[in-house]
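ingest -> fold -> write
write: protein_1
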Amino acid sequence: MAESIDIRALNERIEKQSAFVTNLVTGMNQVIVGQKHLVESLLIGLLSDGHVLLEGVPGLAKTMAIKTLAQLVDSKFSRIQFTPDLLPADVIGTMIYSQKDERFVVEQGPVFANFVLADEINRAPAKVQSALLEAMQERQVTIGKTTFELPKPFLVLATQNPIEQEGTYPLPEAQVDRFMLKVVIDYPKLEEEKLIIRQNISSNKVTVRPIMTTQEIIEAREVVRQVYLDEKIEQYIADIVFCTRYPEKYGLTELTDYIEFGGSPRASINLALAARAYAFIKRRGYVIPEDVRAIAHDVLRHRIGLTYEAEANNVTSEEIVSKIINKVEVP
């Protein structure tokens, strides 16, 4: 009984404290038509301190969505356009010689911002992408012999075009795993398309003004960490991730030949964190199995390695995640 009262009090508190989510979504919807899933995913990343990778063909408002979110939060925003000739120093910064001081000084790169948009991240070679790794994982950058802390909050929002397009490099596994979510974006619906045309040919341009500070985001993250996660939900998350590694133990023997490697412990951690943020966005103080199911594809699709056999049979990680979610017992 005491626990249920606690949950009720927590629920009421979170309902009050998550009111700003509505304002953020409204602000995003003024600029972005449709793409509800994209907006939700960016908010999950923001609230659970996780980086987001967006994949879709050019022109689906990926860059615009990220810029709008950065404008709504009064923060420092920088955009890095990834190209095949980009160097690590172009991302993190470098040492330059100051004639005035007669010594080398550090020139910080664009990664020193709250929101970093890594545009078309798969257009740059691996050594540039690896320069982002330390920043993404450790929230710090080493230039010369000095290590610099990155500002808080720090969020890398990367976009990539589907790999089939020419002149792209597949992202290294270690880096892909650093992204909390990989969100695949599709074309808008017909009605939304008409609204997009109308909005873009209209002379009234929407100006986006900040509605939150970075400090408020940091405080909101503390609240998200208080969202109640039951032991049964923890078990459910662990089962889903274990099923990506050992499908035969969960009665999915047919998937064994298709999976080269399953989700790492980072997958379990991110499923739990993202489920909490999703519950918070839905203004609830506790996580339910539907929250886990709602974010499972985005958290797992880039963490399952496919065998050659899977590719030969056109089996995607998307289908594997769907089968796992349908098979693993819901608490």
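write: protein_2
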Amino acid sequence: METISLKELSEQIRQQSLPLQELRRRMEISIIGQEDLIHKMLISILANGHLLLEGVPGLGKTLTIKTLAQLIRSAFARIQFTPDLLPGDIVGTPIFQPKDGTFIVKKGPIFANFVLADEINRAPAKTQSALLEAMQERQITIGDETFLLDEPFFVLATQNPIEQEGTYPLPEAQVDRFLMKLKVTYPNKKAELDILELYANNSASAQIPKSFLEPNDILIAQQTMRQIYLDPKLKDYIIEIIFASRFPQDHNLAKLKPLIAYGASPRATLFLAQASKGSAFLDGRGYATPEDIRFVATDILRHRILLTYEAEAENVTPEDIINEIFETISVP
């Protein structure tokens, strides 16, 4: 494989990032006050990962992924998770044909490029696990047949932090499949006023954006992003952050040891490197920086650091742990 200089790579990245920057700009026209959500969503797609959102209803989560699918001219599916939802309702099921005595497969809504799993914690673990093969392997097995999913494939799952009655906690193995977990907050006053001005006349349908990208454009961007340079010092920095969450006593963080039950998994190491490259790509750079790592680290680690009962009793959050790690681990 022919190698290119960092200067040539940076120019290539700058050119190929322009459509993604335009995609981000167009999304921010329709989704007001959620710039961080849009930015992190595009990073997740570039890193070929999935996104878990936690936030109250009405913050634009559904509109965001639907707008994304419209701009990229791709298939979109919304799955409303409920206690009576079955795995077959997600992935599909074999249907018997009496005429010839055979089965045909009716594919479920998971066969789309962008899938919204709305209120995912309202379904029991058996149903939630139907997503695991799709999220990790990019394939679905129905009966004795296996179907590859179209690329790009992106799952955005939401959960409501307010209502806990009738909900089921996500299995740790499933949570770890999500590249990031974002906490979606309310927009500020100015953004709320802009939302009112934009949608007050009930012309939401007029705000539907026109497609200008193809799914293949995303696949090319993903492939190019992998070439972004990650300095060995930054790789060591990522390793130090991850290991500090597992063995805090070895990183001058002995006070955190009673608070952490389990640290971040190796998947967090890989995702942190990929997401930092995604951040650099959106900025049009051919190299990642410590700022890229810190920009995505909290969202990658908050659902992978499990706390002890002592931490919960003291109202310590994963974000508190991550901030302590950031303050202690030296930046290269």
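write: annotation protein_2
The longest strand covers residues 92-97.
The first helix runs from residue 6 to 30.
pipeline exit 0
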